[in-house]
Specification:
Chain lengths: 160, 150
């Protein structure tokens, strides 16, 4: 996997709060970094090709758009089934993040996390039901933890 | 409130902001509006909160290290401990959730050791255990989020 160099990091830090809303946003960022706009855009394109930048675009705020029922669904799946289970859930198309994480027994037996977003509780429940159906017998137990309060939410931060 | 053009800005450009010197001009051409109007609408949507930002979504761990952490905080101490956690600049998300483990937050920093130092600091300051649940595998291909408007 490609390692980030200093310029890559500086570009990510400079754009982490978003691109400036001016006619030539890349030129403005390039000026702040002391590089040419064309070189900056080439570097961004290369980070996209390498998968470091997944997408560039308008990032919606789900909560402000009425998606108030944001559930962290967590699943206990046998280690050998995690890959198949993760793929089965993401293929449904509505999961925004799907990660394997370590269990911490006995407090925490769940190893697969999938985030769902809905405008009402009934829809959220139906999304979880569809995930459970997709996993079938691979699912040894699950929970949905809804957020009751957003205490802090900012974009990506690097220890710059 | 949002009109059909605002919705198209949110639907059509979550992952396809043109990588050109004047991206808002290119977006305007696709939508049939001027560059100025694209910029004004994005500014308005950002101020209204509907748009978090216009920018890059970076792969987790591409630059630096991060983890998801969870704590079981006695309810009477929740506000105090939540404030302690949120005060760390390396904490970028912090949620109260319905579970015995009622405080969930993401720590992102330049290195693994800095992440570990933040978790240690929180455990020491609060006197509570902090579960460290780093991402082991990412199954998601991030194509943006399909919004439903009805």
């Amino acid at each position: 996997m490609r390692q980030l160099d200093d310029l890559d990091r500086r570009i990510i830090v400079a754009t982490q709060d978003g691109l400036p809303l001016v006619p030539e946003p890349w030129r403005q960022v390039a000026g702040e970094l002391g590089v040419e706009a064309e070189d900056l855009m080439d570097r961004v394109r290369s980070m996209q090709e390498d998968g470091i930048i997944r997408r560039i675009g308008v990032v919606p705020n789900h909560y402000a758009l009425g998606y108030r029922h944001n559930g962290m669904s967590v699943w206990d799946v046998a280690d050998e089934d995690v890959e198949a289970a993760g793929r089965a859930m993401t293929e449904l198309g509505f999961v925004s993040h799907c990660y394997q994480r370590p269990r911490c027994p006995p407090a925490w037996p769940y190893n697969l996390f999938a985030m769902i977003h809905a405008r009402d509780a009934a829809t959220a429940d139906s999304l979880v039901q569809r995930l459970a159906e997709a996993l079938g017998p691979m699912n040894r137990g699950h929970l949905v933890l809804y957020s009751t309060r957003i205490l802090k939410k900012t974009g990506l931060r690097l220890g710059a | 409130m949002m009109d059909p053009l605002d919705r198209r800005l949110l639907d059509e450009f979550q992952r396809d902001l043109p990588l050109v010197s004047r991206p808002y001009l290119a977006m305007g051409e696709q939508l049939g509006i001027s560059e100025d109007e694209v910029i004004l609408r994005l500014e308005r949507l950002r101020l209204a909160g509907s748009v978090a930002r216009v920018g890059a979504v970076v792969r987790p761990h591409a630059a630096g290290a991060s983890t998801l952490a969870a704590m079981a905080v006695p309810p009477v101490r929740l506000d105090e401990v939540a404030a302690l956690v949120s005060a760390y600049p390396q904490v970028n998300h912090n949620y109260q959730r319905e579970h015995r483990l009622n405080l969930w937050f993401v720590v992102a920093a330049g290195s693994q050791s800095e992440v570990a130092a933040v978790l240690d600091g929180i455990a020491r300051q609060s006197g509570l255990a902090v579960l460290d649940l780093p991402m082991l595998e990412d199954f998601h291909i991030d194509l943006g989020f399909g919004l439903s408007w009805t």
